[in-house]
Amino acid sequence: MKLIAAAKLKSAYEAAELARPYSEKLYEIIGRFSHHIDPSIHPLFEVRTEPKAVDIILITADRGLCGAFNSSIIKYTERKIEELTSKGLKVNLHLIGRKGLQYFEKFGKGIDIVNGFDHVFRKTIDFTAVRTVGESVKERFLKGETDKVILLYNQLKTKTSYFVQEKIFLPLLEVEVEGITENKEVVYELEVRNIEKFVDNLLQRYLNFQLYRAMLESNAAEQAARMMAMENATKNAEDAIKKWTHLYNVARQEAITNELIDIVNAVEALKQMG
Question: Residue 135 and residue 145: Cα distance in Å, rounded?
Answer without folding.
Answer: 13
